[in-house]
Amino acid sequence: MDQNPYNNTLNEFKNSNLYTVQLINTPKKFKTIRNWLIGIFSLVFLSLFLPWQQNINGKGKVTPFAPEDRPQNVPSIIGGRIEKWKVVEGQFVKKGDTLVIISEVKEKFFDPELLARTQKQIANKEDGLDAKNRKIIALEKQIDALKSSVAIKLKMAKNKILQAQFTVKGEKGNFDAAKTNEELSRNQFERLNELYKKGLASLTEIQNRTNKMQEAKSKAIESENKYDKAENELINARIDLNFIEAEYLDKISKAESILEETAGELFESQAELIKLRIEYSNLLLRSGFYAIKAPQDGYLVQVLKAGIGETIKENENLATIVPANTKTAVEMTVRALDMPLLFKGCKVRVQFDGWPALVFSGWPSGSVGTFGGLVQAIDRNADEKGNFRILVVQDPNDVPWPELIRAGGGVYGWAMLNRVPVWYELWRQFNAFPPDFMDEANQMKKAADNKTKKDK
Questions:
Q1: Is residue 194 part of a domain?
Q2: Hey, how many other C-beta atoms are within 10 angstroms of the C-beta on 5?
Q3: Conformation bin of residue 21: beta by default, left when phi > 0, alpha when psi is -120 to 50
């Protein structure tokens, strides 16, 4: 039995049916709501202290990593007209397979025997070159023969001059002796004539002396003539020497002129031959461009010029090929604010469009359907929107990327940074602060930077 009368009175008051008293009492359903709210707020408050993985997110697309693995257009090297397609869209082709056959549309290439005719022109030009070479050899021999001949002739002419000089000297001696003898005979005649006038000499002696004087005078005249003749022969010998030099110089000059002219014609013919050979090579190469072939293994995904008989221009694209067995990468864009926190080798989680995934960006270990990647390259300049492009490749130590992903597919990615409490992450987001750079990532970035400096 309760000994406290106050408690008994209170219980009786609560159990009374008065309306006012019933309003004061708290219903059970409100107690339940109160308990749920307290539990929810407690759970939310406790979750603020859970660890959160900071990350840098970005959107992008799947792209081949190597430039040669990206989709490429197949152009026509020459202009022409489509004659026949050898493949259809979606077909797998190997390197060197013929895709389309085209024909000529330029008049100068219409001749079906153009290659043979050009080759014959080359053969004729080569024969002409051989003839000019033989002519040059003959002219060189002719010049050598003329030079040898003129040397002999000049030597003979010089010997003749030398002989004429000796003859002139001999005749001059004879002439001087004859002049002396003539002078002596005249003196003897004059002395005998004085004696004859005095009667000391006979007429016969005078006559004899006169004859001797006439003979000495005749001999002097004869010696003078011989001397003059010898001098004339010396002059003629010198004239002959000059004539020989001029004559052979003219012949040699003419032969050398013909030689130079022939050599010039030879050089021109050689240049024409080179042009013909280049033209022949171009024609031979052009004939190989009529069949447009696949540059590498891949799939023909789009035909840009389909009509038979349709004309195409030089370097005009005909089809697009996607290479097979390409190494894929992810091309993403990040904000300029986040770019300094990224580095080559930074770990990234990626989600591919069309691939089922359950993503918790702050708890990557609880995410399903995401794949690991590594930052391979970071652009050094921003795009027109102020964002930076990064290339992410597959992480070899993580789950392999799906083989069904295709170039151009959408991607969403997160670069993993520091672990912080949830409340701190909310405070950072509200204040627009950059993420914290974890110590491990900082050390990895420093190691990567040092390696890059050493490589340079």
A1: yes
A2: 8
A3: alpha
